[in-house]
Amino acid sequence: MRKTLFLFSLLTCMAITGLKAQNLSSDYTTALGLKFYPGAITIKHFIKDDAAIEGLGYFRDYGFRITGLYEWHQDIKDVQGLKWYVGGGAHVGFYGTKYGGGSSLGVDGVLGLDYKIQGAPINLSVDWQPSFEFGSNYGNGFYGGWGGIAIRYTF
């Protein structure tokens, strides 16, 4: 499963870097890195001046979860490179446990801060990503513990 997720992430990265930036005024166009807690590969790509898409591949509970988010970004005027963002998306996950396997499907929200370090190809972000799972044999309902701190290489 991890090899499949790695290959998916690598192909997504290659596809996005092949896209031309369309006169974006953001501090970066695409960033790839890691998000800590619960642990994910993250890729973010700005599609407009104030909008980005983010893909996350989490590894957790003997399985994985793939999340796609659409984020609206706004500058924080007093700090160059700092933006706040809000958005939403969906996820699907597949898990194995000692009691059997499970899957999840749900919707996600996101609220966070994004900072591009000036003069360095590094982007940092911190966010909260509440989610609601439904139709899952892994567990239904609201989960407020998703989110974390990301460090990404920008290009």
Task: Furnish the topology, listing elements before pairings.
Blueprint: H1 2-17, E1 30-36, E2 40-48, E3 51-60, E4 63-75, E5 82-97, E6 100-116, E7 122-128, E8 131-133, E9 141-143, E10 147-154
Antiparallel strand pairs: 1-2, 1-10, 2-3, 3-4, 4-5, 5-6, 6-7, 6-8, 7-10, 8-9
Structure description:
With 155 residues, the protein is mainly beta. It has one helix and ten strands; from the N terminus they run H-E-E-E-E-E-E-E-E-E-E. The protein has one helix at residues 2-17, and strands at residues 30-36, 40-48, 51-60, 63-75, 82-97, 100-116, 122-128, 131-133, 141-143, 147-154. An eight-stranded antiparallel β-barrel has the order 1-2-3-4-5-6-7-10. A hairpin with a 2-residue loop joins strand 3 and strand 4 (63-75). The radius of gyration is 16 Å and the shape is elongated.
